[in-house]
Write a structure and sequence with these properties.
The structure is a homodimer. The first copy, chain A, is an all-alpha fold. Helix content of chain A is 81%, strand content 0%. Chain A has a single domain, classed as Phosphate transport system protein phou homolog 2, domain 2 (Methane Monooxygenase Hydroxylase, Chain G, domain 1, Up-down Bundle), CATH 1.20.58.
Chain lengths: 238, 238
Amino acid sequence: MAFEHTAKAFDDDLQELTRLVSEMGGLAERQIVESLDALIRRDTTLGDRVVAADSEIDQLQRMIEERAVLTIARRQPMAVDLREIVGAMRVAIDLERIGDLAKNMGKRVVAIDSDFRPLKLIRGLEHMTDLVRSQVKSVLDAYAAHDLPAAMAVWKGDEEVDAICTSLFRELLTYMMEDPRNIGFCIHLMFCAKNIERIGDHATNIAETVFYMIEGQQILDKRPKGDMTGFASAAPGN
Amino acid sequence: MAFEHTAKAFDDDLQELTRLVSEMGGLAERQIVESLDALIRRDTTLGDRVVAADSEIDQLQRMIEERAVLTIARRQPMAVDLREIVGAMRVAIDLERIGDLAKNMGKRVVAIDSDFRPLKLIRGLEHMTDLVRSQVKSVLDAYAAHDLPAAMAVWKGDEEVDAICTSLFRELLTYMMEDPRNIGFCIHLMFCAKNIERIGDHATNIAETVFYMIEGQQILDKRPKGDMTGFASAAPGN
């Protein structure tokens, strides 16, 4: 009876943690979409809203950390249950970083004052953001459903994002070479493209956390990388 | 007697965690210095070594996380003791991110193939790195000694690093405008300057963790920022 009581209490704690992670994930996804939206439409009001909304994500991360730690201390879960809790903490840290990266893009909206914005660039950024957002969504679904194959699909899909980022950098470099007046604006877009790529890296981290939760060990394969393709003069790096 | 035994076991666990964090901190400090060294001397061998050494830091972070979680589960520490353990986990996460940022600079060494490297730029980067490295060192000492005033001094010192970063960005922008052949090289240095600034942000995070460990609550003041000073065309942002 005491055991059943403990098991029930633990399940409740875990369910609450999963709910908080899912709430945080929803906020992070929205921040990704809105920061790019603000950037493309040069909507400083929306940019400011993205910046302000970040503190909500930060608070959720602290809350998840606190509850996770209290759950471990109170319920003393072992093995697989412990990994569930550590998994929630890890995912929350990645989501908090995603929020920071979106906030950084939101801050740049006000600084991008150029009227020059080639359609090809905008389309590239949009495509990259769509991909990354769907990676974040898929990996959060995989986390909630304990779906290892789905998580591994995200893990492998990061390569495409890195390749688009490299091609965007090449293009931005061309515009900068063509006309020095493009430089300020292009630098901001480079940092934004890099931020979106990093959001993709965090989706990959979450996929690795799902692997750890299910398999009980760290993933050992090297993650695939698509951004090292001969763009030596200004490769985005990693 | 049983209580004493538990207290002793807990102290041993905590001591081991602190030792691991300090080992990790030493490695991270070395990575900061060596990545800049590699960059300035264009020493690709050293750059590669920085990249390779990052996995050691990553492993330590995982180890600290695992031990922290096991300690919480086994010893069920409460209040102040729990905060000690959570503090170690948080510091390890910041140190892991510092390692990533140094690794990113190490990767850029091979891409920077320009012979053009104005002394003023190099001095600026060196000055910024010195400041940031001493912040990391001071805050790790403050963490080990539970020295809140020392941690708060680091927390406030971040402003100067941000200001140097802004001034470096302005200078890099000038070089890019002057001659398009400088653009590729300058972009890499911008990303490096931004990385060093971010390392400073992680030192500030660690200062906040020390506050949390000692005061038992999150710091509520807004952290000081020195990088918003009217550099609208290519501000480094945050």
